[in-house]
Amino acid sequence: MTTTAPAIRCRGLTKVFPDVTGAAGARGLVGAAESAPGDVRALDGLDLDVVAGESVGIIGPNGAGKSTLLRIIAGISGATSGEVRCRGSVASVIELGAGFHADLTGRENLRCLGVLHGRRLDDVDRSAARILAFAGLEHAADQPLKQYSLGMRTRLAFAIVTDRRPDVLVVDEVLAVGDQDFQAKCFARIAHMVEQGTTLLLVSHEMGMVAAACERVVQLRHGRIVDDGSAREVIERYLARSASRLAAAASPAAVLRPVGVEQGGLGRDSLRVTLDLDLDRPVEHPAVGFDVVLPMVDPANVVSASTEAVPALGRAGRYRVTGSTDALWGVGRDMRFVVRLVDRDLQRVLGETAVDVPVVGELAGRRLSPLGVAMTVPMRFSVRPEADAGPATGPRSARVGGGPPVLSLDGVVKRYRGRSRGATLRPLLPGPRGRPRPLDVVALDGVTAHVRAGEAVGLIGPNASGKTTLLRVVAGVTRPDLGSVSVAGRTLSLLELGSGFHADLTGRENLRVLGRLMGVPAGRLGSHVDEAVEFAAMEEAVDHRLKTYSTGMVARLGLAMALVAPAELLLIDEVLAVGDEEFRRRAIARLAERTREGLAVLFVSHDLQLVEQVCGRVLRLDEGRCVDDGPVDEVIGAYAGSSWAGGVHDAEGGIRLQRLVVDRRQVPAGGRIGVEGVLVVDEAQPDARLELALRSPPHDREAALSLDEREAMSAVIETVIAPGAELARAGRYRFRCSIEVGKLVGEIDLVVAAIDQHRQLALAEVWEQIVVGNPEPGSRVTFAPGMRWDVAPVDG
């Protein structure tokens, strides 16, 4: 229910955080809305209107100004210049822990925060039971807040703030760390409030969450609005890897001219693109977009795309632009490369050009799919009669770290002793009378588990299941009451957002402190700090005070140092949930690299898709007990229900395929998938062969496909697992495959089919749906070439 009256109006909103490194002398020469060298301009003349009852998502990379905007609207911070007007009451859930005290109980903190939000104490007390019930924290209400996990604190804060419907509700990131059930309750409450006329402003890096809660989305970059419109359209443009989704600048500033294209042979470093760039004006934050189009197949479809940031172009003039990438995996049709110069601040295309490239000679005779791609990928296959195949571990054993145990938990028990309501609050606030009495909460109840070198193990379960307590016990923050914990080697822990950081130090100074706390030797500290800054992509902000950072920027800084510091075990609690999409992809890739080097990882997140991308094995906790332990897809499927599609089609008798087992259904680009299955040959099939393909999902999953229909689909990988000679005898055969997915990105069917080579007929097929990388919503399967760009000025 909306009206046309603005509930929020921002005009010329500017926020400058002053530098503390010596620019004070220059500050007296500039106006209040101006900034001296070294200052941080978080918001830059922002105009925004939000009508009453509208639900608006605020998105953008870390450091875009999202949190600053919400803090000013909520009245937590003031603007340097400009004005903000909000009609009616404003409630905010912005800073986790703001208004909370670690030594007070949940119930005591409930009373304090309720009063801080303008409610009468007696009114808060009457609502306490309802608030605790919504948060699901009745059992922990009389425990000190320091015993709460991050998710439990989130639930309490949200339940308190939203117990009464405000005119404006401002929410920043916090729902990303809640479990699925609580998120559903929150969204139901938010939706009801919006229907009743509440105006919602929601900041999140979880695009699915934003799309579900908001009808309108605004994208910020460098403190300015660069996109504003319907949620779906703005989110798709934000996530797009292709610069073709961006609008052209009103006054194009660049002319691009192709110079040459060099291609190597199949499977080698095969592509180098050179262009000249004539630039009319400087561009502070440029990027180069690169699209691959097959003009003779589908000129409207981009089959490969990347947009990569390049260093600032500090002056007008001519530049030589050179891009290179690994092999495009055998693109066997004429190609068109479209190159665009992008202003990242404005999210606009400043200029573009295209160059047509004929098919590579050695690919010209290859059999191609209609997509125009013939893939060559590293694969390993084995097909044996089942009696000789041994245990059906296959790729699952490969997912488990092969090294010695780094972490051993044996019968770990942790109890927290609480107190009755009002035991320590009475000196602070009047409240209900009551005598102290011990209340034991069993946070961990006999947990036994082992984590080996090279394993990435996820911890999942509802809030208050013991996940954070387990990480604290492993990190040595708290001791178990019973059982033993053994860690071989150095442990790094990221358990609290901003833990170990100081708001008045710069990012670089905080990294140096954190590095020493993490045990980085003094002689190597400088190089590790530089590596962390580069990995976090925070060169521009690292010498500013931490108080100017958003929650996501703080998380990036801490995780970056943890990913470069030496260690044998890394503990992560929810930190990736508040990072932007680009940093998240790089962090996942670095975690995979570190685990291959032998690092063990214990990872907590309520984002199950993120757990699947990071982990090969999962422990599920419930009420402090380990209730499931196994491969990631099995444990998550049993916990959340499988949303993945899969099935079996048998066209005729004589040969059957049983459902595939894949070791993971969400895999990062460049990762590996393990597959195993069973083929039953009831009658000898001398003309049968076994094939594997990765292909775009069909429109009708229920119908068996003829060979012609299968070939008409967009198969991007197709290979033979076993020729006919191996299936010429009746029996049961177990096959195992290991496939590197390389540069693919998208939702793909992994299909194994038995083919009659003589009749060209699909006798049986079995398939499972997998997701590679982080595809755009509704996108087709594409390739991510990962172009590397060099831009150099040309003299004269």
Structure commentary:
The longest helix is centred in the N-terminal third of the chain and has 16 residues, at 180-195. Strand 24, helix 14 and strand 25 (600-604) form a beta-alpha-beta unit. Helix 4 (121-135) crosses helix 5 (150-161), helix 11 (507-517) packs across helix 13 (551-564) and helix 12 (522-536) crosses helix 13. The protein starts with 5 loop residues before the first strand and ends with a strand. The strands form eight sheets. Strands 28, 31, 33, 34, 36, 37 and 38 form a seven-stranded mixed β-sheet that branches. Strands 5-6-7-3-8-9 form a six-stranded mixed β-sheet, sandwiched between helices. Strands 23-24-25-21-26-27 form a six-stranded mixed β-sheet, sandwiched between helices. The protein has 17 helices and 39 strands. It is α+β, with helices and mostly antiparallel strands.
Give me a quick take on this structure.
With 796 residues, the chain is an alpha+beta fold. The longest helix is centred in the N-terminal third of the chain and has 16 residues, at 180-195.
The gyration radius over C-alpha positions equals 28 Å
Structural class: alpha+beta
List low-confidence stretches.
Answer: 23-32, 361-377, 388-401, 420-438
* Fraction of residues in β-strands: 35-45%
Q: Report how far apart the termini are.
A: 61 Å
> Helix fraction?
10-25%
Name its key features.
alpha+beta, seven-stranded mixed β-sheet, 17 helices, single chain, 796 residues, six-stranded mixed β-sheet
Secondary-structure topology with pairs:
Layout: E1 6-17, H1 24-27, E2 40-51, E3 55-59, H2 66-73, E4 81-86, E5 90-93, H3 106-116, H4 121-135, H5 150-161, E6 168-172, H6 180-195, E7 199-203, H7 207-213, E8 216-221, E9 224-230, H8 231-239, E10 247-248, E11 254-262, E12 271-279, E13 286-294, E14 298-309, E15 317-325, E16 335-343, E17 348-357, E18 379-385, H9 395-399, E19 405-418, E20 439-452, E21 456-460, H10 467-475, E22 482-487, E23 491-494, H11 507-517, H12 522-536, H13 551-564, E24 569-573, H14 581-596, E25 600-604, H15 608-614, E26 617-622, E27 625-631, H16 632-640, E28 646-650, E29 655-657, E30 661-662, E31 666-667, E32 672-681, E33 688-695, H17 707-711, E34 715-722, E35 731-740, E36 744-756, E37 761-772, E38 782-783, E39 788-793
Helix pairs in contact: 3-4, 3-5, 4-5, 11-12, 11-13, 12-13, 13-14
